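Readers outside the structure-tokenisation community will struggle with the description of the input data as it stands. Showing the layout once, in full, would remove most of the difficulty. For illustration, here is how one protein appears when written out as sequence plus structure tokens:
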Amino acid sequence: MTQLLRAEGVSLGYDHTPIIDSLDLEVIPGAITVIVGANASGKSTLLKGLARLLKPDAGQVSLGGRNIAALPGKKVATVVGLLPQQPIAPDGITVTDLVGRGRYPHQGWFRQWSSTDDEIVAAAMAATNTGELAGRRLEDLSGGQRQRVWIAMALAQDPEILLLDEPTTFLDVTHQIEVLDLLLERNRERGTTVVMVLHDLNLAARYADHLVVMRAGSIVANGLPAETLTADIVRHAFDLEARIVPDPVCGAPMVVPIGRFHGQV
């Protein structure tokens, strides 16, 4: 059973500037939760708080019923994996070395690198179609290639809970779908809890079991995509007039923006 990750009355900010105030969120174990919202709504800040990268000014984030701040970092890293929006890697690092770093939380005095680690790294690279990049330096890759390598590292970490901030950044539409399908497969086959921030509302609705809509540091809707992605909520959260119609592929709600020049017929 995946450990429960929960934000309880959490307030988060930067340099004494509040971004999120008294927010509550329980991440549903074994589900895909997608966080959406306009720019500066607090999505990435919330993800950092859940991952223990940002210390709450008030409240707490708990993992398995314990304050995540009180848990050993390596222990947290074996359970919770994070792909931030702008990850940083050492200069000159190769793709294989970077993906292999996903296995570091699983090493210790009595658990050294093994053939199993090699197999997990190879599987993560195969799943993200990065195997042919193995010996290349990260800085020599395109933005899309680098993003797929970072996703491979997150998969190699093999956490129970995977947090991803805009995992489709820099990817063309084909690779966006491939990555989201991969995360869905990981969730369905292995029960990995996935929490990700997405900008594309239609992809969010298609892939989410649970949708969280944010505005100005608060959650304004939280539930099934069909319940949370309504014309009223889109108007409130994004200041956008839109029609909500069924996705012709899967039946999920699909947002069709109206705009100023196309009428409302």
